[in-house]
């Protein structure tokens, strides 16, 4: 194939990776890829970026409206309900992003390096926006004068109600006392766990909260009698306030 034709295929590869070519162009690219290692490598580079795109979106619980719409369609199919005009569901932000990206790649021919640079820029910007819109999954607790060397981190998992608390640098207490974690919301304090530390001042415990951890306004760890207290009674050694 002539060099100009080879370059044409290279220019089409970004759109091919996004599956946004028409059938004729897609077939032409596919035939060329079968015999061109250079273009195969070019496609692999773009495919790696495209494969990472879906991971940018956070998991979203389907809405009640979506469930009702699906059930309505099932009832229509089974004759239990009269068909109605389907409502148009607005595209999600992720769908809008992919559509705009596909339109851009399928537009005027760009040099592959320029296309890759634009892809990295767009994906990076989307990651930043996505992280800014997702509730925090880590809370760093600050030490107080009662335990100035202490450190604590709450790592949120799953649906937000499960987490792990890892502490270091806490003084080892006598057997009559233990540390207690408090989950604070609207002035109410709920116990998140009772624990003792090892000889080096470290410990990791699992938290099972009644509501997602990001919903709480603050967290605190105090020194309490062994077995815990209904509410904080001792010195606060670690804390976090939103």
Structure description:
By secondary structure, the chain is of the alpha+beta class. The chain folds into two domains: 3-133, no CATH class; 138-241, Immunoglobulin-like. Helices cover 38% and strands 24% of the residues. The chain has six helices and eight strands, in the order ααααααββββββββ. It has helices at residues 3-17, 23-33, 37-52, 64-77, 93-105, 112-133; strands at 138-143, 151-157, 162-168, 177-185, 188-195, 203-208, 218-225, 236-241. It has an eight-stranded antiparallel beta sheet, with no helix packed on it. A hairpin with a 2-residue loop joins strand 4 and strand 5 (188-195). The termini are far apart.
Task: Please name the defining characteristics of this protein.
Immunoglobulin-like; single chain; 2 domains; alpha+beta; eight-stranded antiparallel beta sheet; 242 residues
Topology (SSEs and partners):
Layout: H1 3-17, H2 23-33, H3 37-52, H4 64-77, H5 93-105, H6 112-133, E1 138-143, E2 151-157, E3 162-168, E4 177-185, E5 188-195, E6 203-208, E7 218-225, E8 236-241
Antiparallel strand pairs: 1-2, 1-8, 2-3, 3-6, 4-5, 4-7, 7-8
Radius of gyration of CA atoms, rounded to a whole number = 28 Å
Q: What is the chain-wise order of helices and strands?
A: HHHHHHEEEEEEEE
Number of helices: 6
Overall pLDDT metric: 78
Helix content: 25-40%
Distance between the termini: 63 Å
> Main β-sheet, in a few words?
8 strands, antiparallel
> How do the strands of the widest beta sheet line up side by side?
5-4-7-8-1-2-3-6
* Quaternary assembly: single chain
- The dominant shape is elongated
């Amino acid at each position: 194939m002539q060099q100009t034709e080879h370059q044409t295929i290279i220019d089409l590869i970004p759109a091919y990776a996004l599956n946004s070519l028409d059938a004729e162009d897609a077939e032409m690219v596919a035939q060329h890829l079968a015999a061109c290692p250079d273009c195969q490598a070019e496609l692999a580079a773009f495919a790696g970026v495209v494969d990472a795109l879906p991971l940018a979106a956070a998991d979203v619980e389907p809405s009640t409206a979506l469930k009702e719409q699906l059930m309505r369609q099932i009832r229509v199919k089974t004759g239990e309900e009269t068909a109605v005009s389907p409502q148009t569901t607005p595209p999600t932000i992720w769908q809008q992003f992919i559509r705009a990206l596909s339109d851009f790649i399928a537009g005027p021919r760009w040099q592959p390096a320029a296309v890759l640079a634009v892809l990295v820029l767009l994906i990076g910007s989307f990651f930043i926006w996505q992280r800014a819109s997702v509730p925090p999954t880590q809370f760093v607790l600050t030490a107080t004068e009662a335990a100035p060397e202490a450190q604590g981190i709450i790592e949120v998992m799953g649906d937000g109600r499960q987490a792990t608390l890892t502490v270091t640098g806490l003084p080892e207490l006598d057997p009559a006392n233990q540390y207690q974690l408090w989950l604070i919301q609207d002035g109410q304090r709920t116990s998140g766990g009772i624990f003792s530390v090892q000889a080096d001042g470290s410990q990791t415990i699992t938290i099972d909260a009644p509501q997602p951890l990001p919903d709480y306004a603050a967290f605190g760890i105090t020194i309490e009698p062994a077995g815990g207290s209904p509410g904080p009674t001792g010195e606060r050694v670690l804390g976090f306030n939103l």
